[in-house]
Amino acid sequence: MLKEFSRTQLMFGKEAMERLSKSRVAVFGIGGVGGYTVEALARSGVGAIDIIDNDKVCLTNINRQIIATHNTIGRYKVDVEAERIAQINPNCKVNVYKTFYMPQTQAEFDFTLYDYVVDAIDTVTGKLTIVENAKKCNTPVISSMGAGNKLDPTAFEVADIYKTSVCPLAKVMRRELKKRGINSLKVVYSKEEPIKPIEDLEIDNQDSARREIPGSNAFVPSVVGLIIAGEVIKDLTGVGKSK
């Protein structure tokens, strides 16, 4: 009998699809990267997805975030995402948290409940807290490094944090993780040198609270999100992993 994920099962097999249907994945950050990660997880048959973000869709999200349209502006991203998941896979259990993940809010989450954790947030403090909690619970975790101000989607690769270079965010994460005694972390990053955003007084004057506004586009964050989802799916099923 044909099902939503029949074409995936032709590649992965029935046993792997059953593992995915019993898996629970937490995605922290439902933006340009995290939104596409969730999209691929839902379309791969993951049985439960926790989505964590306290932001609302705004006009400037439309250029890169899969949940952002003129119809969703002003709505919480997690609410829009939950509706989208339900339309893709009604059997997927979605847990919604309108929360900005930081040390102050970490008590809301039990990482032992997750089969995998995705870090797709922007703040270093939050990223470090996610990684620390995942490592304490022996829960697999993958982290997105800098995708802003990048133009080459083919330059992104999967690596351990201590084998990264060039990426400014990865450099900070390496230093801080070393201080915390964390000796490994799977990340997606790029060696492409970040470009300097073009100065635009019209844009700057409308967002004076954030002088360092990163440039973005439709084709880089999406690729990063899909790479992350691919790693999660392969790790959960064991399919496509190198021997």
Strand tally:
7
Q: Helix/strand-derived class?
A: alpha/beta
**Strand order in space, largest sheet:** 3-2-1-4-5-7-6
The fraction of residues in strands falls at: 5-15%
> Quick check: average pLDDT?
94
Biggest sheet features = 7 strands, mixed
Distance between the termini: 32 Å
Poorly predicted runs of 5 or more residues = none
Can you put this structure into words, describing what you see?
The protein has 243 residues and is an alpha/beta fold. The protein has helices spanning 6-12, 14-21, 32-43, 77-88, 124-136, 168-179, 201-206, 221-237; strands at residues 24-28, 48-52, 93-97, 116-119, 141-144, 156-160, 186-190. It has a seven-stranded mixed beta sheet with strand order 3-2-1-4-5-7-6, with helices on both faces. The model has no long low-confidence stretch (mean pLDDT 94).
What is the strand and helix layout of this fold?
Elements: H1 6-12, H2 14-21, E1 24-28, H3 32-43, E2 48-52, H4 77-88, E3 93-97, E4 116-119, H5 124-136, E5 141-144, E6 156-160, H6 168-179, E7 186-190, H7 201-206, H8 221-237
Parallel strand pairs: 1-2, 1-4, 2-3, 4-5, 5-7
Antiparallel strand pairs: 6-7
Helix pairs in contact: 1-2, 3-4, 3-8
Considering the chains and any ligands shown, give keywords for the structure.
7-stranded mixed β-sheet, 243 residues, 36% helix, alpha/beta
